[in-house]
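batch_manifest entry 22 of 60
target: Glucosylceramidase
source organism: Astyanax mexicanus
requested by: lab member K.T.
priority: normal
notes from requester: please return C-alpha coordinates only, no post-processing; we will run our own comparison against the previous entry in this batch. if the run fails, retry once and flag.
--- input ---
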Amino acid sequence: MAGITTYTLFIVCIVSTGVITHTQAGSKSCEARMFSEDSVVCECNATHCDSVGKVTLPAVGQFVTFLTSEAGSRLHQEQGQVQRNSTGAAVRITLVPQQKYQHVQGFGGAMTDAAAINILSLSTGAQDQLLRQYFSPEGIEYNTVRVPMASCDFSTRLYTYADTPGDYSLLNFTLAKEDTHMKIPLLQQAQALSPRPLSLLASAWSSPAWMKTNGELMGKGSLKGKPGGKEYKAWAQYYIMFLEEYEKHNISFWALSTGNEPTSGELTNYSFQALGFTPEQQRDWLALDLGPALHSSPYAKTRVIILDDQRLLLPHWAKVVLSDIHAARYVHGIGVHWYWDRYAPADITLGTTHDLYPEYFLFGTEACSGWSSLDRGVRLGSWRRAEDYAHDIIEDLNNHVTGWMDWNLALDLGGGPNWAKNFVDSSIIVDSSRDVFYKQPTFYSMAHFSKFLWEGSQRVGVSVSKHSALETTAFIRPDGSAVLIVLNRSDVEVPFEVWDQTVGFLPSSAPPHSLLTLLWKRS
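--- output ---
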Protein backbone atom coordinates (compact mmCIF):
# COMPACT_ATOMS: atom_id res chain seq x y z
CA MET A 1 0.00 0.00 0.00
CA ALA A 2 1.55 3.34 -1.08
CA GLY A 3 2.36 6.12 1.32
CA ILE A 4 2.39 4.07 4.52
CA THR A 5 5.22 6.18 5.96
CA THR A 6 3.10 9.27 6.61
CA TYR A 7 0.91 7.66 9.20
CA THR A 8 0.71 4.51 11.22
CA LEU A 9 -1.60 1.93 9.72
CA PHE A 10 -2.55 -1.31 11.40
CA ILE A 11 -4.52 -3.93 9.54
CA VAL A 12 -6.27 -6.68 11.44
CA CYS A 13 -7.98 -9.39 9.40
CA ILE A 14 -10.73 -11.35 11.09
CA VAL A 15 -11.33 -14.15 8.63
CA SER A 16 -14.37 -15.62 10.31
CA THR A 17 -16.41 -12.45 9.92
CA GLY A 18 -14.79 -11.05 6.79
CA VAL A 19 -14.02 -7.79 8.60
CA ILE A 20 -10.90 -5.73 8.11
CA THR A 21 -10.32 -2.93 10.58
CA HIS A 22 -8.01 -0.06 9.65
CA THR A 23 -6.80 2.13 12.49
CA GLN A 24 -4.75 5.21 11.84
CA ALA A 25 -3.87 8.51 13.48
CA GLY A 26 -6.88 10.80 13.65
CA SER A 27 -10.60 10.14 13.96
CA LYS A 28 -11.53 10.09 10.28
CA SER A 29 -10.12 6.70 9.26
CA CYS A 30 -12.01 4.11 7.23
CA GLU A 31 -13.63 1.34 9.21
CA ALA A 32 -13.04 -1.12 6.41
CA ARG A 33 -15.05 -4.26 5.85
CA MET A 34 -14.26 -6.97 3.37
CA PHE A 35 -17.12 -8.94 1.86
CA SER A 36 -16.82 -11.27 -1.13
CA GLU A 37 -15.38 -8.78 -3.63
CA ASP A 38 -11.86 -7.62 -4.46
CA SER A 39 -11.70 -4.54 -2.24
CA VAL A 40 -13.20 -3.03 0.91
CA VAL A 41 -16.14 -0.84 1.80
CA CYS A 42 -15.95 1.79 4.54
CA GLU A 43 -18.59 1.33 7.23
CA CYS A 44 -20.19 4.42 8.74
CA ASN A 45 -22.65 4.99 11.57
CA ALA A 46 -24.13 7.88 13.54
CA THR A 47 -20.87 8.65 15.33
CA HIS A 48 -18.10 7.69 12.92
CA CYS A 49 -17.32 7.97 9.22
CA ASP A 50 -14.07 8.44 7.35
CA SER A 51 -13.64 11.79 5.66
CA VAL A 52 -11.02 13.53 3.60
CA GLY A 53 -12.06 16.79 5.27
CA LYS A 54 -11.41 20.25 3.96
CA VAL A 55 -8.52 20.24 1.51
CA THR A 56 -5.91 22.96 1.88
CA LEU A 57 -4.02 24.02 -1.22
CA PRO A 58 -0.27 23.56 -0.66
CA ALA A 59 2.20 26.38 -1.16
CA VAL A 60 3.90 26.94 -4.50
CA GLY A 61 6.67 24.38 -4.84
CA GLN A 62 4.65 21.62 -3.19
CA PHE A 63 1.81 19.40 -4.31
CA VAL A 64 -0.63 17.04 -2.67
CA THR A 65 -1.89 13.66 -3.87
CA PHE A 66 -4.99 11.65 -2.96
CA LEU A 67 -4.90 7.91 -3.58
CA THR A 68 -7.70 5.34 -3.74
CA SER A 69 -6.78 1.78 -4.65
CA GLU A 70 -7.95 -1.79 -4.85
CA ALA A 71 -5.42 -2.53 -2.09
CA GLY A 72 -7.47 -0.46 0.34
CA SER A 73 -6.37 3.18 0.24
CA ARG A 74 -9.29 5.59 0.38
CA LEU A 75 -8.40 9.16 -0.57
CA HIS A 76 -5.09 8.68 1.25
CA GLN A 77 -3.32 12.04 1.30
CA GLU A 78 0.39 12.70 0.82
CA GLN A 79 2.44 15.81 0.16
CA GLY A 80 5.27 16.03 -2.36
CA GLN A 81 7.94 18.49 -3.42
CA VAL A 82 8.08 20.01 -6.88
CA GLN A 83 11.51 19.55 -8.43
CA ARG A 84 13.44 21.85 -10.73
CA ASN A 85 14.83 18.99 -12.82
CA SER A 86 13.27 15.96 -14.43
CA THR A 87 13.17 12.74 -12.43
CA GLY A 88 13.86 10.75 -15.59
CA ALA A 89 10.56 8.90 -15.35
CA ALA A 90 9.67 7.08 -18.55
CA VAL A 91 6.20 8.61 -18.55
CA ARG A 92 6.00 12.40 -18.53
CA ILE A 93 2.60 14.09 -18.44
CA THR A 94 2.90 17.68 -19.60
CA LEU A 95 0.23 20.22 -18.70
CA VAL A 96 -0.79 22.26 -21.76
CA PRO A 97 -2.82 25.13 -20.24
CA GLN A 98 -3.09 27.06 -23.49
CA GLN A 99 -5.37 24.29 -24.81
CA LYS A 100 -8.67 25.24 -23.20
CA TYR A 101 -11.90 23.23 -23.31
CA GLN A 102 -15.18 23.05 -21.38
CA HIS A 103 -15.95 24.36 -17.90
CA VAL A 104 -17.21 22.03 -15.19
CA GLN A 105 -20.83 22.21 -14.05
CA GLY A 106 -20.55 19.54 -11.37
CA PHE A 107 -21.03 16.03 -10.06
CA GLY A 108 -23.70 14.34 -7.99
CA GLY A 109 -26.41 11.68 -7.71
CA ALA A 110 -30.17 11.20 -7.69
CA MET A 111 -32.65 11.69 -4.87
CA THR A 112 -35.06 8.96 -5.92
CA ASP A 113 -37.88 7.65 -3.74
CA ALA A 114 -35.69 4.62 -3.01
CA ALA A 115 -32.72 6.79 -2.01
CA ALA A 116 -34.93 8.82 0.32
CA ILE A 117 -36.49 5.69 1.85
CA ASN A 118 -33.06 4.26 2.61
CA ILE A 119 -31.64 7.46 4.04
CA LEU A 120 -34.71 7.92 6.26
CA SER A 121 -34.47 4.30 7.45
CA LEU A 122 -31.39 5.30 9.44
CA SER A 123 -31.29 7.07 12.80
CA THR A 124 -31.21 10.85 12.72
CA GLY A 125 -27.48 10.86 13.43
CA ALA A 126 -26.70 8.38 10.67
CA GLN A 127 -28.91 10.28 8.22
CA ASP A 128 -26.95 13.43 8.93
CA GLN A 129 -23.68 11.56 8.57
CA LEU A 130 -24.69 10.17 5.17
CA LEU A 131 -25.79 13.53 3.80
CA ARG A 132 -22.59 15.12 5.11
CA GLN A 133 -20.54 12.55 3.23
CA TYR A 134 -22.09 13.70 -0.01
CA PHE A 135 -22.75 17.43 0.38
CA SER A 136 -20.67 19.08 3.11
CA PRO A 137 -17.17 20.59 2.79
CA GLU A 138 -15.91 17.70 4.94
CA GLY A 139 -17.42 15.25 2.46
CA ILE A 140 -17.06 14.91 -1.29
CA GLU A 141 -19.01 18.11 -2.07
CA TYR A 142 -21.64 17.00 -4.55
CA ASN A 143 -23.22 20.06 -6.14
CA THR A 144 -25.78 18.47 -8.49
CA VAL A 145 -28.83 16.33 -7.69
CA ARG A 146 -31.23 14.68 -10.12
CA VAL A 147 -34.83 14.54 -8.91
CA PRO A 148 -37.41 12.28 -10.58
CA MET A 149 -40.75 14.01 -11.25
CA ALA A 150 -43.18 11.55 -9.61
CA SER A 151 -42.45 7.82 -9.60
CA CYS A 152 -39.85 5.78 -11.42
CA ASP A 153 -38.85 2.14 -11.00
CA PHE A 154 -36.98 3.14 -7.84
CA SER A 155 -40.30 3.82 -6.11
CA THR A 156 -42.56 1.48 -4.18
CA ARG A 157 -45.65 2.34 -6.23
CA LEU A 158 -46.71 3.86 -9.54
CA TYR A 159 -48.04 7.41 -9.44
CA THR A 160 -47.94 10.82 -11.10
CA TYR A 161 -49.03 14.23 -9.81
CA ALA A 162 -52.15 14.36 -12.01
CA ASP A 163 -53.81 10.96 -12.04
CA THR A 164 -57.36 12.28 -12.50
CA PRO A 165 -58.46 11.26 -16.05
CA GLY A 166 -59.27 14.14 -18.38
CA ASP A 167 -57.83 16.82 -16.07
CA TYR A 168 -56.23 18.81 -18.90
CA SER A 169 -56.18 21.98 -16.81
CA LEU A 170 -54.34 20.05 -14.07
CA LEU A 171 -56.75 21.33 -11.41
CA ASN A 172 -55.98 18.28 -9.27
CA PHE A 173 -52.19 18.49 -9.66
CA THR A 174 -50.55 17.75 -6.31
CA LEU A 175 -47.18 16.56 -5.10
CA ALA A 176 -47.03 13.10 -3.56
CA LYS A 177 -46.15 12.15 0.01
CA GLU A 178 -42.86 10.89 -1.39
CA ASP A 179 -42.06 14.51 -2.27
CA THR A 180 -43.40 16.33 0.76
CA HIS A 181 -42.39 13.83 3.45
CA MET A 182 -39.19 12.38 2.02
CA LYS A 183 -37.41 13.98 -0.92
CA ILE A 184 -38.06 17.64 -0.15
CA PRO A 185 -36.94 17.48 3.53
CA LEU A 186 -33.77 15.63 2.51
CA LEU A 187 -33.03 18.08 -0.29
CA GLN A 188 -33.44 20.91 2.19
CA GLN A 189 -30.98 19.23 4.55
CA ALA A 190 -28.52 18.64 1.73
CA GLN A 191 -28.75 22.29 0.71
CA ALA A 192 -28.16 23.39 4.30
CA LEU A 193 -24.97 21.31 4.42
CA SER A 194 -23.64 22.59 1.10
CA PRO A 195 -21.69 25.87 1.13
CA ARG A 196 -23.08 26.78 -2.29
CA PRO A 197 -26.45 26.38 -4.02
CA LEU A 198 -27.10 22.89 -5.32
CA SER A 199 -27.91 22.52 -9.00
CA LEU A 200 -31.04 20.37 -9.20
CA LEU A 201 -32.12 18.56 -12.36
CA ALA A 202 -35.75 17.41 -12.76
CA SER A 203 -36.51 14.41 -14.99
CA ALA A 204 -39.89 12.81 -15.64
CA TRP A 205 -40.33 9.11 -16.40
CA SER A 206 -43.94 9.17 -17.61
CA SER A 207 -46.89 11.45 -18.07
CA PRO A 208 -50.19 10.47 -16.43
CA ALA A 209 -51.56 7.28 -18.00
CA TRP A 210 -54.69 8.99 -19.32
CA MET A 211 -52.55 11.21 -21.57
CA LYS A 212 -50.86 8.20 -23.22
CA THR A 213 -51.61 6.04 -26.22
CA ASN A 214 -51.35 2.82 -24.21
CA GLY A 215 -53.23 4.10 -21.14
CA GLU A 216 -50.47 2.90 -18.78
CA LEU A 217 -47.47 4.42 -17.02
CA MET A 218 -45.21 1.61 -18.19
CA GLY A 219 -44.68 -0.12 -21.52
CA LYS A 220 -44.55 1.19 -25.06
CA GLY A 221 -46.58 4.37 -25.31
CA SER A 222 -46.35 8.06 -26.14
CA LEU A 223 -48.57 11.11 -25.71
CA LYS A 224 -51.88 11.04 -27.53
CA GLY A 225 -52.36 13.41 -30.43
CA LYS A 226 -49.62 15.57 -31.86
CA PRO A 227 -47.32 18.35 -30.63
CA GLY A 228 -49.40 21.48 -30.20
CA GLY A 229 -52.39 19.36 -29.14
CA LYS A 230 -54.04 19.31 -25.74
CA GLU A 231 -52.05 16.36 -24.34
CA TYR A 232 -48.72 17.92 -25.31
CA LYS A 233 -49.73 21.29 -23.87
CA ALA A 234 -50.96 19.70 -20.64
CA TRP A 235 -47.71 17.77 -20.34
CA ALA A 236 -45.72 20.99 -20.76
CA GLN A 237 -47.84 22.68 -18.09
CA TYR A 238 -47.20 19.72 -15.78
CA TYR A 239 -43.51 20.68 -15.79
CA ILE A 240 -44.32 24.28 -14.85
CA MET A 241 -46.57 23.20 -12.00
CA PHE A 242 -43.87 20.86 -10.68
CA LEU A 243 -41.43 23.78 -10.52
CA GLU A 244 -44.10 25.93 -8.83
CA GLU A 245 -44.86 23.33 -6.16
CA TYR A 246 -41.21 22.75 -5.29
CA GLU A 247 -40.63 26.50 -5.15
CA LYS A 248 -43.22 26.67 -2.35
CA HIS A 249 -40.69 24.66 -0.34
CA ASN A 250 -37.83 27.01 -1.29
CA ILE A 251 -36.38 24.51 -3.74
CA SER A 252 -35.50 25.71 -7.21
CA PHE A 253 -34.16 23.82 -10.21
CA TRP A 254 -31.11 24.56 -12.30
CA ALA A 255 -32.41 22.42 -15.18
CA LEU A 256 -35.05 20.02 -16.38
CA SER A 257 -34.78 17.31 -18.98
CA THR A 258 -37.31 16.59 -21.69
CA GLY A 259 -37.88 13.16 -20.16
CA ASN A 260 -35.97 10.10 -19.04
CA GLU A 261 -34.91 7.73 -21.83
CA PRO A 262 -37.53 8.62 -24.46
CA THR A 263 -36.52 5.67 -26.65
CA SER A 264 -37.57 3.24 -23.91
CA GLY A 265 -41.22 4.14 -24.37
CA GLU A 266 -40.92 4.45 -28.14
CA LEU A 267 -38.95 1.41 -29.23
CA THR A 268 -39.52 -1.22 -26.53
CA ASN A 269 -42.31 -2.58 -24.33
CA TYR A 270 -40.58 -1.25 -21.25
CA SER A 271 -41.15 -3.02 -17.93
CA PHE A 272 -41.40 0.21 -15.92
CA GLN A 273 -42.39 3.84 -16.32
CA ALA A 274 -41.60 5.32 -19.71
CA LEU A 275 -42.87 7.92 -22.18
CA GLY A 276 -41.92 7.47 -25.80
CA PHE A 277 -40.65 10.30 -27.98
CA THR A 278 -38.96 10.27 -31.33
CA PRO A 279 -36.43 13.07 -31.84
CA GLU A 280 -38.92 14.68 -34.23
CA GLN A 281 -41.69 14.60 -31.59
CA GLN A 282 -39.33 15.98 -28.97
CA ARG A 283 -38.28 18.75 -31.36
CA ASP A 284 -41.86 19.78 -32.09
CA TRP A 285 -43.00 19.52 -28.45
CA LEU A 286 -40.14 21.82 -27.49
CA ALA A 287 -40.94 24.31 -30.24
CA LEU A 288 -44.72 24.36 -29.79
CA ASP A 289 -45.36 23.54 -26.14
CA LEU A 290 -42.63 23.15 -23.54
CA GLY A 291 -40.37 25.94 -24.77
CA PRO A 292 -43.06 28.63 -24.96
CA ALA A 293 -44.63 27.51 -21.67
CA LEU A 294 -41.32 27.71 -19.84
CA HIS A 295 -40.34 30.98 -21.53
CA SER A 296 -43.56 32.70 -20.46
CA SER A 297 -43.36 31.35 -16.89
CA PRO A 298 -41.30 32.58 -13.92
CA TYR A 299 -38.84 29.78 -14.74
CA ALA A 300 -37.56 31.06 -18.08
CA LYS A 301 -33.95 30.79 -16.83
CA THR A 302 -34.27 27.08 -16.07
CA ARG A 303 -31.98 25.12 -18.38
CA VAL A 304 -33.54 22.61 -20.76
CA ILE A 305 -31.63 19.38 -21.41
CA ILE A 306 -32.67 17.17 -24.32
CA LEU A 307 -32.15 13.43 -24.88
CA ASP A 308 -31.46 12.19 -21.29
CA ASP A 309 -30.74 8.82 -22.91
CA GLN A 310 -27.85 6.74 -24.29
CA ARG A 311 -25.03 8.57 -26.05
CA LEU A 312 -25.19 6.11 -28.96
CA LEU A 313 -28.19 8.18 -30.11
CA LEU A 314 -25.77 11.02 -30.85
CA PRO A 315 -25.19 12.94 -33.00
CA HIS A 316 -28.46 11.99 -34.77
CA TRP A 317 -30.80 13.08 -31.95
CA ALA A 318 -29.04 16.42 -31.58
CA LYS A 319 -29.16 17.03 -35.34
CA VAL A 320 -32.93 16.49 -35.49
CA VAL A 321 -33.74 18.74 -32.52
CA LEU A 322 -31.09 21.44 -32.80
CA SER A 323 -31.27 21.94 -36.57
CA ASP A 324 -34.72 23.44 -35.99
CA ILE A 325 -34.29 27.03 -34.83
CA HIS A 326 -37.72 27.11 -33.21
CA ALA A 327 -36.82 24.21 -30.89
CA ALA A 328 -33.11 24.97 -30.51
CA ARG A 329 -33.73 28.42 -29.05
CA TYR A 330 -35.15 26.78 -25.90
CA VAL A 331 -32.38 24.18 -25.46
CA HIS A 332 -29.21 24.55 -23.38
CA GLY A 333 -27.72 21.09 -23.08
CA ILE A 334 -27.73 17.42 -24.01
CA GLY A 335 -27.99 14.69 -21.36
CA VAL A 336 -26.42 11.26 -21.80
CA HIS A 337 -26.62 7.95 -19.90
CA TRP A 338 -23.70 5.56 -19.66
CA TYR A 339 -25.31 2.14 -20.09
CA TRP A 340 -24.29 1.41 -23.68
CA ASP A 341 -21.11 3.47 -23.79
CA ARG A 342 -18.93 0.50 -24.77
CA TYR A 343 -20.85 0.35 -28.05
CA ALA A 344 -20.69 4.10 -28.68
CA PRO A 345 -17.17 5.56 -29.03
CA ALA A 346 -16.95 8.88 -27.23
CA ASP A 347 -15.26 10.75 -30.05
CA ILE A 348 -17.87 9.69 -32.60
CA THR A 349 -20.84 10.50 -30.34
CA LEU A 350 -19.88 13.18 -27.83
CA GLY A 351 -16.99 14.66 -29.82
CA THR A 352 -18.92 14.93 -33.06
CA THR A 353 -21.94 16.43 -31.30
CA HIS A 354 -19.76 19.05 -29.61
CA ASP A 355 -18.10 19.94 -32.91
CA LEU A 356 -21.51 20.39 -34.54
CA TYR A 357 -23.16 22.25 -31.64
CA PRO A 358 -20.45 23.70 -29.37
CA GLU A 359 -22.85 26.19 -27.77
CA TYR A 360 -24.83 23.36 -26.08
CA PHE A 361 -23.29 21.66 -23.06
CA LEU A 362 -23.03 17.90 -22.67
CA PHE A 363 -23.88 16.36 -19.30
CA GLY A 364 -23.85 12.80 -17.93
CA THR A 365 -27.27 12.48 -16.28
CA GLU A 366 -27.36 8.83 -15.13
CA ALA A 367 -25.06 5.90 -14.39
CA CYS A 368 -25.02 2.89 -12.10
CA SER A 369 -23.39 -0.51 -11.79
CA GLY A 370 -25.25 -3.77 -11.44
CA TRP A 371 -27.82 -3.04 -14.14
CA SER A 372 -26.79 -5.78 -16.56
CA SER A 373 -28.43 -9.20 -16.34
CA LEU A 374 -24.91 -10.67 -16.56
CA ASP A 375 -23.73 -8.77 -13.47
CA ARG A 376 -26.82 -7.81 -11.52
CA GLY A 377 -27.29 -6.02 -8.21
CA VAL A 378 -25.14 -4.98 -5.26
CA ARG A 379 -21.50 -6.07 -4.99
CA LEU A 380 -20.04 -4.78 -1.74
CA GLY A 381 -16.43 -3.78 -2.36
CA SER A 382 -16.25 -4.25 -6.13
CA TRP A 383 -13.12 -2.50 -7.37
CA ARG A 384 -13.87 -3.26 -11.01
CA ARG A 385 -17.02 -1.16 -10.77
CA ALA A 386 -15.01 1.69 -9.29
CA GLU A 387 -12.65 1.54 -12.25
CA ASP A 388 -15.58 1.45 -14.65
CA TYR A 389 -16.88 4.69 -13.12
CA ALA A 390 -13.52 6.45 -13.24
CA HIS A 391 -12.81 5.32 -16.80
CA ASP A 392 -16.19 6.54 -18.05
CA ILE A 393 -15.92 9.89 -16.25
CA ILE A 394 -12.44 10.55 -17.62
CA GLU A 395 -13.53 9.55 -21.12
CA ASP A 396 -16.59 11.81 -20.90
CA LEU A 397 -14.61 14.76 -19.54
CA ASN A 398 -12.03 14.37 -22.27
CA ASN A 399 -14.87 14.60 -24.79
CA HIS A 400 -16.42 17.87 -23.61
CA VAL A 401 -18.86 16.61 -20.95
CA THR A 402 -19.36 19.22 -18.20
CA GLY A 403 -20.58 16.96 -15.38
CA TRP A 404 -21.48 13.40 -14.44
CA MET A 405 -24.22 12.11 -12.17
CA ASP A 406 -24.46 8.82 -10.34
CA TRP A 407 -27.91 7.22 -10.02
CA ASN A 408 -29.47 6.51 -6.58
CA LEU A 409 -27.72 8.26 -3.70
CA ALA A 410 -28.42 5.23 -1.50
CA LEU A 411 -29.93 1.74 -1.85
CA ASP A 412 -30.44 -1.19 0.50
CA LEU A 413 -28.47 -4.43 0.59
CA GLY A 414 -30.72 -5.89 -2.10
CA GLY A 415 -30.29 -2.94 -4.45
CA GLY A 416 -33.74 -1.46 -3.86
CA PRO A 417 -36.50 -0.85 -3.13
CA ASN A 418 -37.66 -1.08 -6.72
CA TRP A 419 -41.25 -2.00 -7.55
CA ALA A 420 -40.18 -3.48 -10.91
CA LYS A 421 -37.41 -5.54 -9.25
CA ASN A 422 -34.83 -3.73 -11.35
CA PHE A 423 -32.24 -3.98 -8.57
CA VAL A 424 -28.85 -2.31 -9.11
CA ASP A 425 -25.83 -1.09 -7.16
CA SER A 426 -25.23 2.26 -5.49
CA SER A 427 -22.25 4.20 -4.18
CA ILE A 428 -23.77 4.04 -0.69
CA ILE A 429 -25.51 0.91 0.56
CA VAL A 430 -27.66 1.12 3.70
CA ASP A 431 -28.08 -1.66 6.28
CA SER A 432 -30.89 -0.24 8.39
CA SER A 433 -30.96 -3.32 10.68
CA ARG A 434 -27.55 -2.25 12.01
CA ASP A 435 -28.06 1.51 11.50
CA VAL A 436 -24.97 1.65 9.28
CA PHE A 437 -24.15 2.45 5.69
CA TYR A 438 -21.31 1.30 3.47
CA LYS A 439 -19.35 3.60 1.18
CA GLN A 440 -18.56 1.59 -1.91
CA PRO A 441 -15.38 1.95 -4.00
CA THR A 442 -17.53 3.83 -6.54
CA PHE A 443 -18.18 6.48 -3.86
CA TYR A 444 -14.46 7.21 -3.88
CA SER A 445 -14.33 7.17 -7.68
CA MET A 446 -16.90 9.96 -7.63
CA ALA A 447 -14.94 11.75 -4.88
CA HIS A 448 -11.79 12.07 -6.97
CA PHE A 449 -13.78 14.28 -9.33
CA SER A 450 -16.50 15.94 -7.24
CA LYS A 451 -14.18 16.96 -4.40
CA PHE A 452 -11.53 18.59 -6.56
CA LEU A 453 -13.15 19.73 -9.81
CA TRP A 454 -15.01 22.78 -8.59
CA GLU A 455 -17.79 24.30 -10.63
CA GLY A 456 -16.14 26.61 -13.16
CA SER A 457 -12.95 24.56 -13.44
CA GLN A 458 -11.74 24.41 -17.04
CA ARG A 459 -10.30 21.36 -18.73
CA VAL A 460 -6.92 21.93 -20.32
CA GLY A 461 -4.70 19.87 -22.55
CA VAL A 462 -2.20 17.22 -21.53
CA SER A 463 0.60 15.69 -23.56
CA VAL A 464 2.01 12.28 -22.66
CA SER A 465 5.58 11.34 -23.61
CA LYS A 466 4.79 7.69 -24.31
CA HIS A 467 1.87 5.30 -24.33
CA SER A 468 1.14 3.74 -20.94
CA ALA A 469 -1.67 2.22 -18.93
CA LEU A 470 -2.52 5.61 -17.42
CA GLU A 471 -5.73 7.47 -18.25
CA THR A 472 -5.62 11.17 -17.43
CA THR A 473 -7.58 14.42 -17.44
CA ALA A 474 -6.44 17.86 -16.26
CA PHE A 475 -8.17 21.05 -15.14
CA ILE A 476 -7.37 24.58 -14.03
CA ARG A 477 -9.65 25.61 -11.17
CA PRO A 478 -11.17 29.08 -10.74
CA ASP A 479 -8.45 29.98 -8.20
CA GLY A 480 -5.74 29.12 -10.75
CA SER A 481 -4.65 25.86 -9.12
CA ALA A 482 -4.24 22.71 -11.20
CA VAL A 483 -5.81 19.26 -10.85
CA LEU A 484 -4.63 16.12 -12.62
CA ILE A 485 -6.60 12.87 -12.23
CA VAL A 486 -4.84 9.62 -13.11
CA LEU A 487 -6.42 6.18 -13.43
CA ASN A 488 -4.30 3.03 -13.59
CA ARG A 489 -6.34 -0.08 -14.45
CA SER A 490 -3.28 -2.25 -15.00
CA ASP A 491 -1.63 -4.82 -12.72
CA VAL A 492 1.66 -2.91 -12.43
CA GLU A 493 2.73 0.33 -10.79
CA VAL A 494 3.47 3.13 -13.25
CA PRO A 495 5.96 5.82 -12.14
CA PHE A 496 5.46 9.17 -13.86
CA GLU A 497 6.24 12.84 -13.58
CA VAL A 498 4.10 15.88 -14.31
CA TRP A 499 5.69 18.84 -16.06
CA ASP A 500 4.11 22.23 -15.42
CA GLN A 501 6.30 24.94 -16.91
CA THR A 502 5.20 27.46 -14.27
CA VAL A 503 6.45 25.39 -11.33
CA GLY A 504 8.58 22.43 -12.46
CA PHE A 505 8.39 18.64 -12.21
CA LEU A 506 5.99 16.75 -9.94
CA PRO A 507 7.31 13.21 -9.29
CA SER A 508 4.64 10.60 -8.60
CA SER A 509 3.56 7.01 -9.17
CA ALA A 510 0.26 5.26 -9.80
CA PRO A 511 -0.04 1.92 -7.96
CA PRO A 512 -1.75 -0.97 -9.75
CA HIS A 513 -5.53 -0.61 -9.91
CA SER A 514 -5.64 2.88 -8.44
CA LEU A 515 -7.09 6.32 -8.87
CA LEU A 516 -4.88 9.29 -8.06
CA THR A 517 -5.63 13.02 -7.89
CA LEU A 518 -2.80 15.56 -7.85
CA LEU A 519 -3.41 19.15 -6.76
CA TRP A 520 -0.97 22.05 -6.87
CA LYS A 521 -0.76 25.83 -6.95
CA ARG A 522 0.61 27.36 -10.12
CA SER A 523 2.87 30.40 -9.77
